[in-house]
Amino acid sequence: MTKKTGRIGSSFEDYLAEQGTLEETRTIAVKRVLAWQLEQAMEERQMSKSAMAQAMRTSRSQLDRILDPDNDHIRLDTLAAAANVLGLNLRIELVG
To answer: What's the chain's average pLDDT?
Structure first.
């Protein structure tokens, strides 16, 4: 008996699309990755949250919102400013 290889059923993205949550899920995933990357960069540079907030000329509570992986209501210029303080560039692209 030969075993078939390949996928059975639809993809997880198809499932999320059927549930009407694909875009929301993507948005949350992107924000979580960005928050993680910022935290990793801060760790590598041994930069505290207080020092980061001061360098961004913002409050510690605002920085906490930026780093909150569940908060997807952060402006692009705010993310760019955080990246800039860490010597990074924010790159956004549309893919099809």
So the answer is: 90
Residue in the structure block whose two tokens are 């908060």:
71
DSSP letter (8 states) at residue 70: T
Q: Is residue 50 part of a domain?
A: yes
Is residue 54 one of the residues assigned to a domain? yes
Element (H, E) at 66: helix 60-67
Residues of the domain holding 73:
12-85
What is the CATH classification number for the domain harbouring 23? 1.10.260
Burial of 79 (0-12, 13-18, 19+ CB in 10 A): middle
First-to-last C-alpha distance (Å) of the chain: 40
- Residue in the structure block whose two tokens are 């952060």: 74
Q: Which of 14-28, 35-49, 55-69, 78-92 has the lowest mean pLDDT?
A: 14-28
